[in-house]
Amino acid sequence: MTTPPDMTITDALDRADAALLARRLDARTCPSDLLGRMVRHPAPRIRHLGLTLLAERADTPDAGGGGEGGHLALVARLLPDSPGASPEESLLLAGLHARLGARRARHRLPDWRAAALPARVRIAWLRTELLGDPTVLRTEPTGELLYRAVRESAAAEAHRPDRLVAELVDTGDPVLGTEALRLSRDGLHAGLLAPAFVRGLLVRLLDAPDRDVVTGALRELAEPWATVTPVDAPALTRQARAPDGRYADRDGASAALAAAALVAAARHGHPTVLWSTAEDPAGTPALRGQAVELLGDRAERTDVGRLVALAATDPLLLAGPVLTCLRGLHRRGHFPADPDVGPLLALALADHTLPAEDVATVLYTCRRPLFDALTDAPPTAPDWPRRLELLIALSRQGAADIPIGEAVARLLPAARAPRPFLAAIRVLRPPAAEEAVLALLPTAPSAALDALETIGGDRTRSALARAFGLGGPADRPPTALFGAEDGPPTAPDGPPRLPVAPELRPVRDRALALLWHLTREPGQRQALLARVDPQNLPHDIEADLGAPDERELAVLRARVDVDAPVAAFCRIAAYAGTGTLPPGGVPLADLLLRIVRDLAAPRDPAEGPPRPGADAPPRRRTRGPGPGGRRTGAAA
User: What is the reported pTM?
Assistant: First the structure.
């Protein structure tokens, strides 16, 4: 005879077999009368299991077909009137009562205060009581128990989150005021509290005795949602000001409060507060700089001169904040005028920590006066490195209508310290500066080679060839440019030795690598290659050796079918050389247009998406260097 399932569960309940009940019962399908027997069972383990199943039933949506209201009704009907006989049981009961209190007004709780419960359990019960009836805050003594109960509460769990936040504000306690800020912010973002209600609470907290609470309220009032309705300046700055009218900065709390007041005043449209703080010579330096930066969102074009004059009073303190403010004005379409270029340039020259890119951005609309002011200095001026930095930043802004590179190249011969000018020429790349840079090759070889790497051409190649003794009789270096050659032209054993001018000895490898890269004629390359020492070869030359034969690559690139643009493009890319041109006169742009046209053409859905590389040839396999130092390869 087989025992029915209900009889098995009943027998297990009579025997207090919690293990069997835990295996057989499901919170979603367990009958309510069985749950009621379990939560009132004399065995602690059965009661704990019943409360656990009841909590799972309350958290399960639409369990039993009753919806959330059915769950609450079931929990209210089955819960016992006692706070529990054990701490674990009491914690479960506190959680279930919290669910009921958040949804039902005036929900009665068992007398948990009279029970001898641990602190952790008492905190849970106090939290449950606060979420259902916030007026408990009026009579509950402040202390760690209350603080932890409020800290563990959430706005979404309260029956009336607005009343809970209001009661917390009315206590005047600093800890509870901080928690009121947290709950009001969470309730606002969750859509449980109206913005007008939260804003009213924040304005009330501006009069709180604790500075941290006022600071938190000011920071929240500076958020975009709170600036829709501006708050008066006195209300925002009252707590932050000292008796003498200045912003207090005696300690960390006062500094944070003053900074939050400035931000709130700026967001609520009170530039007078910012100007009074920024122009106060006896004010706190950090607050003065912050006020100047915040003026970037409130100042106008007519205030640029006032800002520059303010920065001139203390450039090391206010030049950076003024530049930040001017960038804010620049983003809003307020640009400096030509008379402001001189004072702003003086600030940039006085404080080298100001980013040159920011200075060039702010003064881009006045780039011609800025260029004239930067170049209106003798080449021997000591501040030319900073001027060159500003000129490079101006050039990077796209000032193509100003001959910046040509001006730097014109000043190079008379420069006392040519290295900054050569570094600028390397970046600017003026077209007619090669001769001036070559003239400095004997005196500043390293910096000159840096510049020649970007602007060098045939003249550079000829000069370097003469320096290494590779020129003909008519190409011998003049004594004004290079000195005597280094050693005999040939070594006693091994390959011929390359002589080098004494001025280039410290940078011999760099100069030789530059000469190699500038030498494009095969005969000249062979002559240079025959003179270098294979055991002492510069790395840049070694990396350039062993290139494929251009004639072989040209044969492979000639097999291009323009009707298969993907394959043609892949073949050109696979067999490209140093001077590759499209075969047959077919531009690469035309091949790309054909590829895009084929991809955009409508297709039969059954064919699937097109594969751009379907008609591409296999990749070319390249072996090691073959005879003569060149790589050999064949198409697969």
Answer: 0.71
